[in-house]
Fold this protein.
Amino acid sequence: ELTNTDAATLYAAVTTPEAKRFMWAPPPNVVALERFIEWTHAERKAGKYVCYGIVPEGKADAWGIFELRSLQPGFVRGELGFVIAQSLWGTGLFQEAAQLLLGFAFDVANAHRIEARVAVDNDRSNAALKKLGANQEGTLKHAFWREDHFVDQYLWAVLDSEWRDSR
């Protein structure tokens, strides 16, 4: 789970132009990110949201995050969100972290369905979700605001039964 000591490194990791291109606007500064971290703790306690930092081997701070939002009470249906520092792209860290989070979602939170939404032009994330075993279910037209225009997103999903069968 994130702590305020992660804020500075995490802020630097997620505010690069490459990372920001595919995510909602990050907090505007480190102090705002610290408030976000405090919010994640309150939301977890309320049973609505879980946010974990991605701490690469040999590092002490988070260089990315994985989020799980409850879309229906009790995490029956949840949404996966993620962002990782560009320096860690292509290292296999996404697959490792995503498998841990999905294991938590299905085995601990008892989720039935986990969804993810990814911009259609985010080739890396779309390929990573496919490799993870997610199914592309459709295209959400103009679902994401990027800078000055809307872009389409693919809707991906993993069901608990598919997850268990793949293990």
The chain has six helices and six strands. The longest helix spans residues 30-45.
